[in-house]
Amino acid sequence: MRKIAVFSNMYPSEKHPTFGIFVKNQVDLLRSKGLDVEVTAIDDPSKGKVNAIRKYAFWFLKSLGYMLKNRKSISVTHAHYAFPTGYISLLGKKWLGLPYVVTVHGGDIDKMATKSERIASMTKEILQQASAVIVVGERLKRDVIEQFGVREELVHTMSMGVDTQIFKPLPKVDMRDELNISQTEKMILFVGNLIEAKGVLDLVDAYKVVHDAYPNTSLHLIGSDKDEQFMKTFAARVQMDDVHISHHAPLSQIEIAKWLSAADVFVLPSHHEGFGLVALEAMATGTPVVATNVGGLSYLLDNDAGILVEAKNSDSLADGIIQALNEGQTDRKPNMQCKVAQHTYDVIAERLQTIYDSVAKGRKTDE
């Protein structure tokens, strides 16, 4: 195996350490297994039309230049997100004969491909021309096969994996002491971007019901406030509810693992979700998970590995949280551990290397 060129429109930096952290984690994993991986990515999440044009144009040209310069040493390119990232790999195949793998994360199918017929058509070509398509959830597998006409034998369902060296059970008492959380309160935790699509308002409404039933509960939300207008709505909703809700800025994965271990229940009330990696990370710490029955979460929490509730339904969400609080943290552990074992880094690394090897063997070259 020679060089793997990874392209991504999301990648963390010192200034933005959580932006596309799952891509970096996979790159680090592959490098730890001895693979030669080079990354060309966007590490700036800032918005604005002018800024977007500038950063995407620079990234696009840099990526093409990298492939041209290293075309003889690159075995496979790997694009994270079908569009726009996959278009770079598509051009690499058309112009330089470089085979590629594309990972579909969800938003590129659920949202990006629905923006226009042109983007949908480009997404279809990107997926159909790929030597392998990786999807992070079973629903996405069905979508790329049925909606975009990709041959089933080319589609591989595989999450980004969970780092069980970081996400593992930690002593709850110690973690609560460190985080200054009361040992007696029932702690509910959410981790993710504070946006409407993550069901944050549904969670606030549900928490009001839960708090009435369990006055000693607390709700902590960890994540970025990317949408200024939504945060105004969120703040108004929180003020209307006479309960204590804490919002924390994004944290490192090591710190997130401490919060997950300190929690009584982890909640992910997304309206749509490709996989729901943070739910898997919560399971790896031994914390019960309540999540909406959407996308990859439907499969991740099936077989009693977690509690599935109806999306966009705060009453159903409240019922699920109360059920989890009543059950405690031991009832579902065997099922949770079974799910985690299917998504460890070692399992993911082995599967990725197998895909890369298979794709690289099919490369046509004049060397």
From TrEMBL:
Q: Which InterPro entries match?
A: Glyco_trans_1, Glyco_trans_4-like_N, Glycosyltransferase_grp1
Domain Glycosyl transferase family, by residue range, is 175-333
Span of domain Glycosyltransferase subfamily 4-like N-terminal? 52-165
Concerning PANTHER family, the annotation shows: SULFOQUINOVOSYL TRANSFERASE SQD2, TEICHURONIC ACID BIOSYNTHESIS GLYCOSYLTRANSFERASE TUAC-RELATED
- What is the recorded name of this protein? Glycosyltransferase
Organism this protein belongs to = Sporosarcina quadrami
